[in-house]
Design a protein that fits this description.
The structure is a homotetramer.
Chain A: E1 7-15, H1 20-30, E2 34-43, E3 48-56, H2 67-76, E4 82-87, E5 93-98, H3 103-114, E6 120-126, H4 132-137, E7 142-144, H5 152-165, E8 170-173, H6 182-187, E9 192-196, H7 208-215, E10 219-226, E11 236-243, H8 250-273, E12 277-280, E13 283-286
Helix pairs in contact in A: 3-8
């Protein structure tokens, strides 16, 4: 992972005013921080300002633990900013949820195993035992929680308990075929990433490849988004498409979709763990 | 246009049976025709067979005018085929319908002017006078038919009359912003090509870029389809997408969409005038 | 794998003449074979004919073992055809060669493990022990053959012996960083697939990402090709590109390239194991 | 054109130091300028800093004519900056050079005609009379300068004289098939944009589609770059590719390439006229 291991990242948004960029960069500059990355965005329609800035903490005058406080006092309050502050030294701890299909979870775990991604995956959760062997291959605990209408609330509570015990930050739904309850989602607001196998908003819900086949589209897609209580309606992080022709059956679309799904999901997760995503008005700003 | 100018093209479909390819190729082979192109497709779900075959008429034993009859008798009836027979010597005659935006009509006319496409454009029709100068630049008659609720039926009849007088085969809706009546569409069934500025079935109807912006998609698209009475619901011929980010305003999406629209429309028209499209079950087989 | 498990596939090429398609389809049709797939290609410049045909063996009149002989006698000799005949029941046996990077081998093994691909991988070969853990995760024997100038010939002989003992059909070089000798390549002619991390013919040889960075290209690519004695000069099977900008360092290009490499390689291998590739004049016909 | 018509744009580069962003944004902020766009880039290998900033001149404290001087004194000299300052009110004046193919020049002129681009095209220059009708369609003077070995220097001098008389800023080589002399290029350094019909550095020079066909690539491309004395070796602005298969003849590649060439060239010109390009070390920074 090419992130400087001793860096801080601020993700900021507030109403747009003159001077915000100056104030933020001055805060870093005056305290002897070297800016590694700066990107900003203004939504002129909403008059909202967004910024991501990352700087080297080597020699930074403010101790790491106090940066949040100082920034709030010296800059944040002046502009009524909402901000998140991340330190590269804190490795994201992520749980992966799966059902029957292994392509996404294999893609993620192979990135972790090779060192391409610097995250920890303390556990894999499924409603089936089917992919237990994948978890075993990578020495990751695999927990099965079968879900029925009757036991859903109870099982979700047990899952949440397990996530808390493992200090999980974020959840990846790697073709997990259960719908999470609003209560569950609320506890990991904007921290649950799903992959849906269509170019949303086309073909939400079940069996999108069947729908794509019926409609005769010439492109099939995949969409990775943050999960909200509205099914397949959350802020989109990444999308991709691939060409299909009249020759492609539903089965063939499913096969072509496998690569699309795993790459689009991984692109979204990469942006998330790099702390490059910021949500506003059910849309996602994805800094480069 | 790379098509052999003395060639015939058959577009065939019927229930799938053993021996169809043999029968068709034998018909051509035995009559001394050299096959230039052959592609077939079987929809195994519908058990329907589709084929496109093109052959050189040089030295072909059956006179051009009788090929249709002979084929019907010797092959077509045996398999209860539906087929269309085209001769490359008959240049397609196409009317272009426009409203306010010129990018698509410019793209088409520049292809005709350069010889990239071998079609004739005997007239351009619009509900506005705005693009008259474009028609004049290319010396093409430009007819304005303003459309209102009250006069729509009457105006469409006048347009149809004009199309008949000009022996028009096909119609291109180059961002023509009027909805054609089912009666109009019926007269040019599967011969009217539209460009819609979204990746259908996402965002049908008006203002798709606004909808794309609101939903926060990371891809915008364009879809070219044959026009049917269902708005934006006809068989899709070609689709394309381009990436957008949080930085793209509606205005910027519109600008990025211009290129997408003109290229996707032209790809669809190219397939159509090459006689490479075949419609079945509201879907389009597009041979290569 | 969607291939009919009881099917045969013919890959044919010969000088183009009238009647070849008829002869081949008649051979299958008259012996009660149902054609599942047929595609043909004529290189009009070289006047060479290429064809791939696949048919259901259920009820086929000629016993599987004799199909090759009968086809030679009844069709092949008449047209001086070269052909390969494959049976879907024979699972391809493939060896994977690796060095330091695991993304491609993980991608391949996860496809095998999930059942997406129906191949057998009896062994993995490397010039390093580094990826032994990957082989162990998938329970595949891992053999290390360190290569030096002095021992290359000898080591290659040992590798070849091992491949023979394991009845290996094809070899995948999954970022294997050794150059194989012409003798080695000759034994697996057109059966060794490599992935090169550039859009060939740009940037052959070592360090293509460095070269891409130096040249300031806006696209980086990957190319999968059959290995021939000319370095990075063999017939291309699949290529892909992804966008880069001035912001992308060499390190970042390498990271972006990982996905490109693994997907392009897997696309090529998929075509190969589906028996959809045919080599002629140092180019690859890849049927759909 | 969505650019604010009363805005200024600074393109800056200098050795990277702490505080540059602060200094530049303070200069604008303190003089009551509202930043519309800010993007920066640091080449960490070369330790070079690049920035593009655009701001609204409405109410800006420094008169337009003096902004350059003030900026030099107050900011530029401190950091030894090289910078270019542009005002949106100054419409770019561009000459188009053509030879036989009209697709690129049509594409450009249709963008100007529709108002998509806000540039002036005072003249078109060619070494042939072939495309005179295109110039006439758009009422643009068309000048023919036939070029031979003997008269090249003399003819180029006449062309340069004409460009000066027309106060031309930039030149677009829209498939102009002559090589410009180093003297000519020097007078319009980094202001001449060419389109080459391959994905450079693959297939520089003549007949790239023939070379692509021979090599059997699965992608063909187009590259737009600033012209330097090294043939097809200048800084790349934009590139694109499209898929080809074994079915594509050289003629077909040429046809597919037409769209690629015109879109890639127009993308490059769009970046150039938006003042989003900055050249360094024979590479192009293209701000978004």
């Amino acid at each position: 992972m090419q992130t400087n291991p001793n860096s801080a990242t601020l993700l900021i948004h507030c109403k747009d005013k003159k001077g915000i960029v100056v104030s933020v960069t001055e805060f870093i500059h005056k305290n002897n921080g070297n800016i590694l990355y700066l990107d900003q965005h203004v939504d002129h329609q909403e008059k909202e300002f967004f910024m991501r800035v990352q700087w080297d903490l080597e020699g930074f005058a403010i101790p790491t633990k106090k940066i949040g406080d100082y920034f709030t006092t010296l800059v944040g309050e002046r502009y009524a900013m909402k901000f998140d502050l991340y330190f590269a030294q804190n490795t994201p701890r992520i749980a992966i949820f799966v059902s029957h299909l292994s392509h996404c979870v294999y893609d993620i775990l192979s990135r972790v195993s090779s060192g391409e991604w610097n995250i920890e995956v303390p556990l894999i959760i499924s409603n089936h035992s089917k992919l237990k062997h994948v978890a075993q291959q990578f020495n990751i605990p695999y927990h099965v929680f079968s879900i029925s209408k009757e036991n859903k609330t109870e099982q979700e509570q047990k899952i949440l308990q397990l996530l808390r015990e493992n200090a999980i930050d974020s959840v990846i739904l790697a073709r997990y075929m259960q719908i999470l309850s609003p209560q569950f989602i609320a506890e990991f607001e904007h921290q649950i990433i799903n992959i849906h196998h269509s170019f949303l908003p086309a073909f939400p819900g079940a069996k999108p490849y069947h729908s794509a086949y019926e409609r005769g589209v010439k492109l099939i897609g995949a969409t990775s988004h943050y999960v909200t209580p509205e099914l397949d309606g959350g802020p989109i992080i990444a999308q991709g498409v691939t060409e299909v022709t009249h020759k492609d059956t539903v089965e063939n679309m499913k096969r072509k979709g496998l690569d699309l799904e795993k790459i689009v999901l991984s692109n979204a997760v990469w942006s998330h763990i790099q702390r490059k995503t910021l949500i506003y008005n059910n849309k996602t700003i994805v800094f480069e």
